[in-house]
């Protein structure tokens, strides 16, 4: 199993590399790169502790493979993004039409750090484009 980490800020990448080296994790590789510049050419699971909106990050994921994305979000998630999550349930409109909601869980304080709770939101890419560069005869 391999773990790849992407972060746009070099300072954060270097900090996590120090932890990786200290913990002796040879299967972890870290890169300074923006999400929209990456093409995921293998099936994968992506986890994010995203400050921005889920829909904005999902639009930036470029792939022709099966991809699962899990967001770690604050308690105000439904206030800020509830409408977009309804679009996922409708499955036919809006900016999230290519994504399927597969899981949503409230993680309580005793399961995580000192915050009062967080949501884990899981989505799966529904439409996977295969052979999109094949020429039409």
Q: Ends: how far apart?
A: 40 Å
Report the count of strand segments.
8
Seen as an oligomer or otherwise, the chain set is single chain
Give the strand content.
25-35%
Estimated structural class: alpha/beta
Poorly predicted residue ranges: 133-137
| Backbone shape | globular
Helical amount: 10-25%
State the major sheet: 4 strands, mixed
| Average pLDDT level | 83
Structure write-up:
The protein is an alpha/beta fold. Helices cover 23% and strands 33% of the residues. The protein has three helices and eight strands, in the order βαβββαββαββ. It has helices spanning 10-22, 54-58, 77-90, and strands at residues 3-7, 28-32, 39-40, 44-48, 62-63, 67-73, 99-108, 117-125. The strands form three sheets. The protein has a four-stranded mixed sheet, with helices on one face. A two-stranded parallel sheet has the order 1-2. Strand 7 (99-108) and strand 8 (117-125) form a beta hairpin. 10% of the residues are buried. Residues 133-137 have low confidence and may be disordered.
In summary, what is this structure?
With 137 residues, this protein is α/β, with parallel strands linked by helices. It is built from three helices and eight strands; from the N terminus they run βαβββαββαββ. The chain has a four-stranded mixed β-sheet with strand order 4-6-8-7, with helices on one face.
Task: Give the topology.
Elements lengths: L2 E5 L2 H13 L5 E5 L6 E2 L3 E5 L5 H5 L3 E2 L3 E7 L3 H14 L8 E10 L8 E9 L12
Parallel strand pairs: 1-2, 3-5, 4-6
Antiparallel strand pairs: 6-8, 7-8
């Amino acid at each position: 199993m391999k773990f790849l980490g992407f972060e746009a800020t070099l300072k954060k990448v270097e900090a996590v590399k120090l932890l990786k080296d200290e913990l002796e994790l040879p299967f972890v590789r870290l890169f300074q790169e923006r999400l929209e510049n990456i093409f995921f050419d293998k099936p994968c699971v992506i986890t994010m502790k995203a400050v921005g909106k889920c829909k904005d990050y999902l639009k930036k994921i470029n792939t022709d493979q099966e991809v699962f994305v899990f967001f770690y979000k604050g308690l105000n998630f439904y206030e800020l993004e509830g409408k977009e999550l309804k679009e996922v349930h409708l499955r036919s409109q809006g900016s999230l039409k290519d994504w399927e909601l597969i899981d949503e869980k409230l993680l309580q304080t005793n399961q995580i750090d000192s915050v009062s709770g967080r949501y884990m939101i899981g989505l799966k890419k529904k439409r996977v484009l295969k052979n999109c560069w094949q020429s039409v005869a």
